[in-house]
Amino acid sequence: MPLKRLSVTAVRNLHPVTIYPSPHINLIYGDNGSGKTSLLEAIHILGLARSFRSTRLQPVIQHEHDACTVFGELLLNNGVQTTMGITRSKAADYQIRIDGQTVRSTAQLADTLPLQLINPDSFRLLEGAPKQRRQYLDWGVFHVEHQFLSTWQRLQKSLKQRNSLLRRGRIERSQLAPWEAELVSSSERIDLYRRAYIAKLKPVFEDVLAQLVSLEDLTLSYYRGWDKERDLQLVLDSQFERDCQLGHTQAGPQRADLRLRIKGMNAAEVLSRGQQKLVVCALKIAQGYLLKERGRQQDCIFLVDDLPSELDEHHRKALCALLEGLNCQVFITGVEAEQLARSWQKETLLTMFHVEHGHIVQTESCLE
Fold first, then answer.
1. Which amino acid positions bind ATP, per UniProt (predicted)?
2. Residues forming a β-bridge with 84
3. 353: which strand partners?
4. How far apart are the first and last CA of the chain?
């Protein structure tokens, strides 16, 4: 499901712009600070209502404006055209419209425009906190399991209520019973969804990784957030006193993690920065393949910021071959147009955009 048209207003240093991207490979080049990453950021805001560069909106919205707006026209796999737009203000408010109708949930944006980001910070997926790996995992589950979101919302509500009661100090065990029943029920469903997804993801990930780099000893495993040999209710019972002391629930899906290890050691502590990036690329591309296999109306769109960063020419070409094999829409940034273009096969159709001082202009391919 490609973006056919993209309009951006008041995002960072970008001048108001409308572009018509290719449904396949789009290369965005220009000097550092010209606005290349800001274009990817705008697409990210359109799909997820937030920036990947800042948790705050102030730096994202141009100083002289109170809000930024991103609008897109998309073509679904079934040939139907849809529109979506988002306006975000400095007051942190947002307005979302899909096909002219106001939408309240950012989840509908994510469902309409599935995005995968690969950028110089991607290695943090390996060396960062478990929360980042849970978000990666749940992105995939959300897009393939329709009941995941509602189950996740039930989990969050019951977990919030249990933690609120725990923070009150001495409480009767029976006060927690209704919320624990809901917590256990939703936790078991979330775990079931995640395990089913991991079972499908693992072989695809291993195949993609093998095409990027040889890491035969790398293993991917899933920790569900509590003892795999015991029911969650038994774990909650045994940890009740400790939970009361801490004021929060220690066990459950909110503590789940993906574990990548090499010979029993944390992969992030063994791999080079370049190897880490390749592993993360394999993880994200594998999700793109799984989404495509589901035959949904939308394919994943890849945003790749600064492709040459930490990857030599051989690995850049391997990564580009995998992206091309997905037959999905890709946006890739880099400083040098020729270096970007030569990462692809000569017969690959490339659409190129030059960015200079916030102005974006479509140009001719620089390949002979």
1. 30-37
2. 72, 98
3. 28, 362
4. 29
- Report the CATH number of the 1-114+298-368 domain: 3.40.50.300
**DSSP secondary structure of 310-359:** T--HHHHHHHHHHHHHHTS-EEEEES-HHHHHTTS-TTS-EEEEEEETTE
Q: Pick out the residues of the known binding site for ATP.
A: 30-37
Higher pLDDT, 88 or 121: 88
Token couple for 224: 């569900």
State pLDDT tens for residues 212-246.
999 888 999 999 999 999 999 999 999 999 999 99
- Could you count the other beta carbons within 10 Å of the beta carbon of residue 37? 22
Query: What token pair was written down for 170?
Result: 């001495």
The count of C-alpha atoms lying within 13 angstroms of the C-alpha of 312, restricted to the half-sphere facing its C-beta, is 4
What are the distances in angstroms from CA 187 to CA 26, 155, 222, 248? Answer: 41, 6, 15, 16
pLDDT 10s digits, 150-203? 999 999 999 999 999 999 877 778 888 999 999 999 999 999 999 999 999 999
Q: Which helix (H) or strand (E) holds 341?
A: helix 337-341
Phi-psi group of 216: left, alpha or beta (phi > 0 → left; psi -120 to 50 → alpha; rest → beta): alpha
| 123-295 classified as CATH 1.20.1050.90 | yes
Binding-site sequence positions? 30-37
